[in-house]
Amino acid sequence: MSLAHTILASLVHHPTTGYELVKDFNERIACYWQASQQQIYRELSRMEEQGWIEGERVIQSDRPNKKLYRVTELGLKTLKDWLVQPSNPAAIREELLVKVLAGYLVDIAVIRAELERRRNYHQLRLEHYYQTEQEHFQDLDSATLSMQFTYRTLRRGIRYEADWVEWCDETLDWLNGMDQSNV
Amino acid sequence: MSLAHTILASLVHHPTTGYELVKDFNERIACYWQASQQQIYRELSRMEEQGWIEGERVIQSDRPNKKLYRVTELGLKTLKDWLVQPSNPAAIREELLVKVLAGYLVDIAVIRAELERRRNYHQLRLEHYYQTEQEHFQDLDSATLSMQFTYRTLRRGIRYEADWVEWCDETLDWLNGMDQSNV
DNA sequence: ACGCACATGTAAGCCGTTACATGATTAC
DNA sequence: GTAATCATGTAACGGCTTACATGTGCGT
User: Fold this and answer.
1) How far apart are CA A154 and CA A156, in angstroms?
2) B53 strand-pairing partners
3) Phi, psi of B73 (to 5 degrees)
4) Nucleotide nearest to B43 (CA to C1')
């Protein structure tokens, strides 16, 4: 149910298209909400049916036509009503950890390779977030309230990725130490 | 598909029952894989059908009867084959962050209360993990390989919860600072 | 001619959530 | 008698994943 609310929270800033939303979800929102292109387009249709958003066809000459969505009064009310309700922590289903749990059953090189792959993935995302921080959140004191709240979500992303990198590092250190003692 | 593999990874240590598995998922596994009681029992039935595990009825006089599951050869092979395949990071869908993103739309007291609630939740889990660490992972050097791998997953849980507590704290600090400047 | 960025969709199947359901034994 | 722990299930619904599908305009 909450994908719709995430889209509302993103649309309420400024009207946008499905295509732009997909990019937003990949670049900015991914650190706390993941959704595929198919999900987003389907959800936009449903939300329009319910009257939470309104879509407007925009004819373009230099590019394919697009559909610009904006939040309606009803949509804003829906979002605000949802905002004040308590929410539960997200469910986590992390395959890598299951593989670490059972890592003793297979060649350690396999686990090491996976950990290195994951470390690189999170390092990349971390650098991406740092870049966003420098580009858009340089002067926080003079930023709008909305921007400051947005920055708090970026902070979450930064902490999350940094923490993963550190865990991968400590786990790799332990793996490498283990190897030494087995030589 | 991976709930089955998580169960295999847990069962491969020692045969156990659905009831015990549910407790394991709540206490130990929750930091990287969440599953409900209903899911677990349904998955056990499916896995038995596929021949990955075998269930044995155990008659008890002092307690209700139970069904003890053990991993078959086929199940072990299935697990090992899965272990060596690469896996993607988990998808995150964190409502609280969406609420922070749109937090400027509602009374800040609502957001503050939610942050405090979340901080307490993660603090509790963190303390629970520290307790597990002291009870079961005191002497790592003399522990089995399996135990050491298990400890790595606990470390992930500890880091994860500690990181959440810190983010909640820094966000609450910012919120409180904001209030001051508005007085 | 080809690849890339732009732009929007449909449909099947699997998995997770929610609600419902039952019953034994122990301890207070 | 009643609450807690032990113990195991069924079924409907809704959302997410995966695969499929189509088409424009620009740059090289």
Assistant:
1) 5
2) B71
3) -55, -45
4) C15
Closest CA-bearing residue to C1' of C16: B39
Q: Which nucleotide is nearest to A45 (CA to C1')?
A: C9
CATH class of the domain whose range is B2-83: mainly alpha
Tens digit of pLDDT at every position of chain B (183 positions): 799 999 999 999 899 999 999 999 998 999 999 999 999 999 999 999 999 999 999 888 888 899 999 999 999 999 999 999 999 999 999 999 999 999 999 999 999 999 999 999 999 999 999 999 998 999 998 999 999 999 999 999 999 999 999 999 999 999 999 866 655
Which residues on neighbouring strands pair with residue A66, listed in sequence order?
Answer: A58
CA B128/CA B119 separation, integer angstroms: 14
- The pTM of the full predicted model, rounded to 2 decimals, is 0.94
Residue B103 touches partner A, C-beta closer than 8 Å:
yes
Smallest CA–CA distance, residue A176 to chain B, in Å, is 13
First to last CA, chain B: 54
* Rounded CA–C1' distance between A7 and C7, in angstroms: 18
Q: Is B153 on the interface with A (CB under 8 A)?
A: yes
